[in-house]
Amino acid sequence: MKILVVEDEKDLNLLIIKMLKKAGYSADGCCDGREALDYLAGSDYDAILLDVMMPNMNGYELLKKLRDRGDDISILMLTAKDAVEDRVKGLDLGADDYLIKPFSVDELLARIRAMTRKRNGNKTNLMSLEDLTIDISRRTVVRSGQEIQLIPKEFSILEYMMRNQGIVLSRERLENQIWNYEYSGSSNSVDVYMSRLRKKIDSGHEVKLLHTIRGVGWVLKADV
After folding, report:
1. Quick one: pLDDT at residue 223?
2. Helix, strand counts (H, E) of the chain
3. Which H helix or E strand runs over 41?
4. How far is it, in rounded angstroms, from Cα 209 to Cα 47?
5. Are the C-beta atoms of 7 and 52 separated by less than 8 Å?
6. Pairwise CA distance, residues 153 & 218, whole Å
7. Which one of 2, 19, 30, 50 has the fewest beta carbons within 10 angstroms of its own beta carbon?
8. Which class does domain 126-223 fall in?
9. How far apart are CA 195 and CA 202, in angstroms?
């Protein structure tokens, strides 16, 4: 899952990004609404953490602009303004949720999970394919009753593929979704992670779930 942090307090921006990456998310950061529009034009994001008081274009203005053009990306407003009318304004403009500063890491992560579940139509943290189940909240993976240990990047890739079961995902789409804006790794990084992931989830199982579509990308589906 890829998140854009729009926050003009640079130290807080960097801290939030650090927390998100530690939790397994891919994250980029910018400091005002106009810069955010450039990031959104250049990459696909699943959610925005949006500060209200910013220079050039504030959070309310950016939120209105996105909703007016029909963009339904998940948006969590972050603000030190705790007046009821301020929260109502953000929600009426189309924000999915509102979090008052200062906030705890656990609450921020819980609100992100809840917000994106609603957007994706998921009422639980669990997603399954055949005998493979992942728990988004606990960040665990189980197949045939056995827990599989994944590093954060592997989990992010698997989560994205579980959300797109049966869809062939190209290397470029995976790079854009899982890695951040400044990513400049080797061209075979995705291949390396996919090879490791396939071994972990398919090794020893008759039914294979992760498949390479030569020259195109990868797909998660049951091969019976």
Report:
1. 73
2. 8, 11
3. helix 33-42
4. 28
5. no
6. 16
7. 19
8. mainly alpha
9. 10
Sequence-distant (≥ 6) Cβ neighbours of residue 128 within 8 angstroms: 134
Q: Which two tokens stand for residue 170?
A: 């190209």
- Reported pTM: 0.64
Mean pLDDT, rounded, for 147-168: 90
Q: Token digits for 12?
A: 């807080």
- CATH 3.40.50.2300 domain residues, the chain: 2-120
Q: Which percentage of the chain shows pLDDT scores above 70? A: 92
β-pairing, 74-79 with 47-51? parallel
**Alpha carbon of residue 144 to chain centroid:** 27
d(CA 98, CA 50): 9
Q: Where in the chain is the domain with CATH 1.10.10.10?
A: 126-223
Q: What is the pLDDT of residues 93-145, one digit of tens each?
A: 999 998 888 888 889 988 888 887 766 655 557 889 999 999 887 889 999 99
Measured CA to CA, the distance from residue 68 to residue 9 in angstroms comes to 27
Helix axes 33-42, 59-68, angle to 10 degrees: 40
Residue 83 structure tokens: 């007046």
Q: Which CATH architecture has domain 2-120?
A: 3-Layer(aba) Sandwich (3.40)
* Residue indicated by tokens 């960097």: 14
**Predicted confidence (pLDDT) at residue 177 exceeds the cutoff of 60:** yes
201 sits in which H/E element: helix 189-202
Query: Is 79 in contact with 52 (CB distance < 8 Å)?
Result: yes
